[in-house]
Amino acid sequence: MNASSPHTDSHEILVIGEALIDIVATEQGSIAHPGGSPANVAFGLGRLGVDAGLLTALGDDEFGAKIQAHLGTANVKLLPGCLNLERTASATAVLAADGSARYEFDITWDLAPHELDPMPKIVHTGSIATFLEPGAEAVASLLAQAKGQALLTYDPNIRPALVGEHGKALETFKRMAALCDVVKLSDEDARWLYPQLELEQVSDAILELGPILVVLTLGAEGALLATRSDQVRIKAVRSEVADTIGAGDSFMSSLLQGLLAHGSAELSTAELEHLGRRAVAGGALAVRRSGAMPPTLEELTALLEEQHLAAS
Question: Looking at residue 29, what is its pLDDT?
Fold first, then answer.
């Protein structure tokens, strides 16, 4: 970083990472949705009424304009200097009969220099942006700059085709996790990173790296939230699945909104359960419709109230 680096605008939460176009190939043809895990998380935060900014890398092209317009509908602001690529990245998702997706990528990741000033309350990153050079090193440097000044959160969102050899990817994950206060990952991520461990052992292994809170999403089994002294399981919300694209990102957005409201990742058992239910509900609402379309705050609140009434 240097004195000429652009400064960030003031945001409650800053998301750092890739934005791309998800091209969904179906029997009826192809549909293009703005996507990329970090961009989806930022969009989800905006839909939940959070003041969110996105530091990313786009091309000054049709796909880049489509992404900017999409983010704008949720009042998500791109930071200065984001139009620095020759072309905007894309990922083609081929859907299976059960709604799950397989991805093929066309992506370059090269982040322009930035200073985190003013410092947001939360900085979130993850996915391809933390593994793919040359941009991954810039992301790690920004997190190191923010450590101790903001709550740092990380979702590796492993894409085996892009993260490289397992041993190197695991070391990258460990370095990023050690910088962060909260690490969220899927059961698939956990099994890929730590194939020799049970899921509960994975959360313990990550906590030993330094985070305060580890959150594991378990698909139809809900979620596991673990700290060094506590562990809670949250049941899944029953949902008719349209597709799973963006479900983990919607979970992450709802998790971040809950952390922002609490102001810390130091949580009691009751607070862990409350946070987990909020995040699970956010993910459940996302799978009920096609594409990465997370819930509004009103939709999330309504489902949480419905769940509360059903349990009482």
Answer: 81
Is residue 105 a contact partner of residue 87, using CB atoms and an 8 Å limit? no
Q: Which of 249, 226, 186, 237 is nearest to 33 (CA)?
A: 249
Domain ranges for the chain:
13-311
Residues with Cβ < 8 Å from 29, sequence gap 6 or more?
none
Q: What is the pLDDT of residue 275?
A: 97
What CA–CA distance (Å, rounded) separates 293 from 33? 10
Are the beta carbons of 245 and 292 closer than 8 angstroms?
Answer: yes
Helices 247-262 and 37-47 sit at what angle, rounded to 10 degrees?
50
Q: In what order do the strands lie in the sheet with 52-55?
A: 77-78, 52-55, 13-16, 122-126, 151-155, 182-186, 213-217, 223-226, 231-234
Cβ–Cβ under 8 Å, residues 107 and 162:
yes
CB 243 within 8 A of CB 95: yes
State the burial class of residue 284 (Cβ atoms within 10 Å of its Cβ: 0-12, 13-18, 19+). Answer: buried
pLDDT of residue 2: 45
The two three-digit tokens of residue 57, written as one number: 């890398």
pLDDT given for residue 9 in this prediction? 67
Q: What is the pTM of this model?
A: 0.92
In the chain, which residues have pLDDT < 50?
1-3, 312
Q: Are 89 and 107 in contact (CB under 8 A)?
A: yes
3-state secondary structure 189-215: HHHHHCCCCCHHHHHHHHHCCCCCEEE
- Spatial contact of 255 and 279, defined as CB atoms under 8 Å apart: yes
Q: Which two tokens stand for residue 192?
A: 């890929």
Q: What is the pLDDT of residue 242?
A: 59
For 13-311, CATH number?
A: 3.40.1190.20
Task: Please answer whether residues 124 and 14 qualify as being in contact, where contact means their C-beta atoms are separated by less than 8 angstroms.
Answer: yes
Distances (CA, A) of 300 to 72, 253, 273, 280, 297: 21, 11, 16, 10, 5
